[in-house]
C-alpha cells in the first residue's frame, strides 16, 4: 500500500468526515499476529495499540470493548460493570456481519451497525493511540480525545 494512498474504508471516511487529524500507519499484516505483530512492525509500544473486541452479553446483545494491546479483558469484571450475567466474545462470522469488517481489520469507526462501545479507562491517559483503520494491515494514529469525541465510549475498568 503506497504511503500517500489511504484506502477508503468506512473508518477512514468517518474520520475524514469528522475532520480528525490522523496518521495512517500501514504495516505488513501477519495472520493471527494481533497487536504484538503490529506493534513490532510499527516499532511502537504495544500498550498504545488499541484492539477492538466485539462481544455479546447473556441476551446476545453485541458490544465493542476497546483495550490496550498488551492487556486482556476481564469478562467477569465487564459483566459486573454492565450488570449482566455473562459476556462472551462473538464468533468471527457474527463480528463480520455486525461490523462489516474482517477479523484482523476491525475498527470501532464506521461499523455496519451502531454498537455500544466500552473503553478501558486508562486509554484516555495516552498521548496517542494506534487503532485499526478498517483493513488488515492498516492502523491509524490519533489522540484519545478525537476517539472519545467521535465514539462517545463508556469508560470501564476491566484490564488484566
Explain what you see.
- The longest helix is centred in the first third of the chain and has 9 residues, at 34-42.
- The chain is globular.
- It has one domain: YbaK protein (Alpha-Beta Complex), CATH 3.90.960.10.
- The model has no long low-confidence stretch (mean pLDDT 94).
- Strands 1, 2, 3, 4, 5, 6, 7 and 8 form an eight-stranded mixed beta sheet that branches.
- The protein has 160 residues and is an alpha/beta fold.
- Helix content is 26%, strand content 26%.
- It has helices spanning 10-17, 34-42, 75-82, 92-99, 144-151; strands at 23-26, 49-57, 62-68, 87-89, 117-120, 129-135, 138-142, 154-156.
- The chain has five helices and eight strands; from the N terminus they run αβαββαβαβββαβ.
Coarse morphology? globular
Helix content: 25-40%
CATH topology: YbaK protein
In percent, how much strand structure appears in the residues?
25-35%
Please state the structural category.
Answer: alpha/beta
* Termini separation: 35 Å
- Biggest sheet character: 8 strands, mixed
How many structural domains?
1
Instruction: List SSEs in N-to-C order.
Output: HEHEEHEHEEEHE
Per CATH, the architecture is: Alpha-Beta Complex
Unreliable stretches, pLDDT < 50, 5 or more residues?
none
Amino acid at each position: 500500500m503506497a504511503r500517500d494512498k489511504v484506502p477508503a474504508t468506512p473508518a477512514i471516511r468517518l474520520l475524514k468526515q469528522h475532520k480528525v487529524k490522523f496518521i495512517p500507519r500501514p504495516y505488513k499484516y501477519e495472520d493471527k499476529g494481533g497487536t504484538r505483530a503490529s506493534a513490532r512492525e510499527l516499532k511502537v509500544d504495544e500498550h498504545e495499540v488499541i484492539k477492538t473486541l466485539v462481544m455479546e452479553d447473556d441476551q446476545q446483545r453485541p458490544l465493542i470493548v476497546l483495550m490496550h494491546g498488551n492487556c486482556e479483558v476481564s469478562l467477569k469484571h465487564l459483566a459486573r460493570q454492565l450488570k449482566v450475567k455473562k459476556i462472551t466474545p462473538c464468533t468471527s462470522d457474527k463480528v463480520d456481519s455486525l461490523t462489516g469488517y474482517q477479523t484482523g481489520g476491525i475498527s470501532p469507526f464506521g461499523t455496519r451497525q451502531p454498537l455500544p462501545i466500552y473503553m478501558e479507562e486508562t486509554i484516555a491517559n495516552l498521548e496517542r493511540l494506534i487503532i485499526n483503520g478498517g483493513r488488515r494491515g492498516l492502523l491509524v494514529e490519533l489522540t484519545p480525545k478525537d476517539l472519545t469525541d467521535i465514539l462517545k465510549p463508556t469508560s470501564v475498568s476491566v484490564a488484566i
